[in-house]
Amino acid sequence: MKTPDTDRLAQDLKSGALALAIADIAEEAARLILPYWRVDTAVETKADDSPVTQADRAAEALILKRLETLYPGVQTVAEEAVAADGAPTAVQDWFWLIDPLDGTRGFVRGGEAFTVNIALMHAGYPVAGVVTAPATATTWRSDRPEGGAFRRQFGALQAGEAHAGEDWRPIRVRDRPAEGLALLSHSVTDEEAARLAARHGCAHWQGTDSSLKFCLIAEGRFDAYPRTGPTSEWDTAAGQAVLEAAGGRVLADDGQRMAYGKPGFLNGAFVAMGG
């Protein structure tokens, strides 16, 4: 096993080069995924009863290859690798958390709310993250530490360019309005969603899939995303990085910042919040 060059990793994190590099990787994975969308893609069922497609596996293989080329030897914890080979028993101080296609159920149904998630973890917390929505060609990312969060629309690969879309623009959570607006998972009932929204000071709520919920709060369109059911750490790490960079918070059930590298890489209850 290669010894990771953590000095270079930390240097690129500090300069912002790392976040830009993983944004390009996520967008390349998004372009790979799209030909599988809204076609008759074969769907398999994993041991945990969740679906997986060739798009998930192809995107993960691409992401892992690109990250290993850029930062050799850094540990990776990726959803499909864990499903196939089991979760690692321990994590290094620096490691990647990767969900190559978050929201596979919606993807299979032909919905738009699916994402590519890549996050860099250090000492138990996300320090850089990118979320890309292939269906809308949108990417959200953190910047260098204390550098804020950004969003861009990216174009199709043209004339050898890595991204032929708009420039990055800064995003920020909004101040909580008098009647806040919550985002909830489609897995909860309407009654439970209304109760959770009210519990976190939101008069109204809307359902959506995947890590998009973190990003929509980060850009100031919504105010809270409470979650009581279990999620995997690769579902939330990149979104948490983006939201925290935009001025928001993700708190575990004990009221502390949500940490990572937990047993089984499973999250308990949490709430993601804006201003």
What does this structure look like?
With 275 residues, this protein is α+β, with helices and mostly antiparallel strands. The protein has two domains: 6-171, 2-Layer Sandwich (Fructose-1,6-Bisphosphatase, Chain A, domain 1), CATH 3.30.540.10; 180-273, D-Maltodextrin-Binding Protein, domain 2 (3-Layer(aba) Sandwich). Helices cover 32% and strands 28% of the residues. It has eight helices and 16 strands. The protein has helices at 6-15, 17-33, 54-70, 79-85, 104-109, 190-199, 212-218, 233-245, and strands spanning 43-45, 51-53, 75-78, 94-102, 115-122, 125-133, 138-142, 149-153, 169-171, 180-184, 202-207, 224-227, 231-232, 249-252, 266-267, 270-273. A seven-stranded mixed beta sheet has the order 3-4-5-6-7-8-9. Strands 12-16-14 form a three-stranded antiparallel beta sheet, with helices on one face. It has a two-stranded antiparallel sheet with strand order 1-2. Helix 2 runs antiparallel to helix 3 and helix 7 (212-218) runs parallel beside helix 8 (233-245). The chain starts with 5 loop residues before the first helix and ends with a strand.
